[in-house]
Write a structure and sequence with these properties.
The complex is a heterodimer of chains A (about 150) and B (about 200).
Chain A: H1 2-25, E1 30-36, E2 39-43, E3 46-49, E4 55-56, E5 61-64, E6 69-74, E7 79-82, E8 87-95, E9 102-116, H2 119-123, E10 128-131, E11 136-141, E12 143-148
Parallel strand pairs in A: 9-10
Antiparallel strand pairs in A: 1-4, 1-6, 2-3, 2-5, 5-8, 6-7, 7-9, 8-9, 9-12, 10-11
Chain B: H1 2-23, E1 29-33, E2 43-48, E3 51-55, E4 60-63, E5 70-73, H2 76-88, E6 95-100, H3 110-125, E7 131-135, H4 143-163, E8 171-175, E9 196-201
Classes of the chains: A alpha+beta (about 150), B alpha+beta (about 200).
Amino acid sequence: MRRRIEHPCRTLLAASALGVALSAGAADIGQIKVAKGQVAIERGGQALPGEVGARLQAADVLKTGADGSVGITMSDNSLLSAGPNSILVLDRYAFDPTTSQGQFDASLQKGSLAVISGRIAKQSPDAMKVRTPSSILGVRGTEFVVSADD
Amino acid sequence: MTRVRDRLRGGLAVALLSAFLGACATQTGTVVLLPEKGGANTAVSVRQGDQEVVLDKPYAAAHPTTSGPRAYTSSPQEVEAQFGAALKAQPTRPASFTLYFVEGRDEFTDASKQILADVLSEIAKHPVPDIVVVGHTDTVGSDAVNDALALRRAETVRAMLVGRGLSSASIVTVGRGKRELLVPTPDNVAEPRNRRVEIVVR
């Protein structure tokens, strides 16, 4: 009888601990792993240096200069890398590492981008989308490149 | 007579104009599907309004234009010329490893001790590694017991990695208990392959 009462409590504790862990980590959706030349992160109107190791958040805008390139790894293992003179927006990102369910919307406003999709696209085809000013790419997998002319 | 000729001339001009516009539909970008290492089925759809092109073969490509996506076949040379810099900035691919544990304990099996060396050499390849350690158990015992055991196993791996000089902040540990079995079994089955920790190095 004692054990039966104890179980739900423990489960609840574990669940709330997990909830805290998830919400604490929710802000970080990815990280800059490679950066060359001029790279900046725009977040809420502020320009931050796009250095190797910098953590990324949803709605961040990555900009590269004429000599710049940047490579990022997302928490679902997606890899995105942009060439020179590029503007990449991480519009929307949600990922549940337990179920691999999620949604990833990015847009390449200009420049060039190489993508290796990760667990989100693998779990649900079309849960990952990359927009350019003229088109919408539905990502069923896995490796592709896209450019958007000025 | 003149009127008919005018009308003909007008019609010709419209036809020429639309042919001209069609041929010169301005290209607004490029999309190329690249070959998949494992040879798995992959595809990317390119949609503009109600027009869609699906790229599902290596180097299948499309140019979005002002009059919809135009399909063509690209080449490794074209991809390198246009996307070389972006491809060169691609981060090291995430790698995952599985370590197995002795039943009911947070102690590695002997075979898994050797895999640790591989984990450490993979970590060395990542300039700013972030590591996810996910502990699992077999189905012997309650969820509460297994969740705690799974987390303890993950923490054992974290402590080991920190002992080798990794920053604790770069390691996330998760205990999944018996929810994600590698080998599906009924409840209360001792299955060595389910007693594991997955390490993802990103």
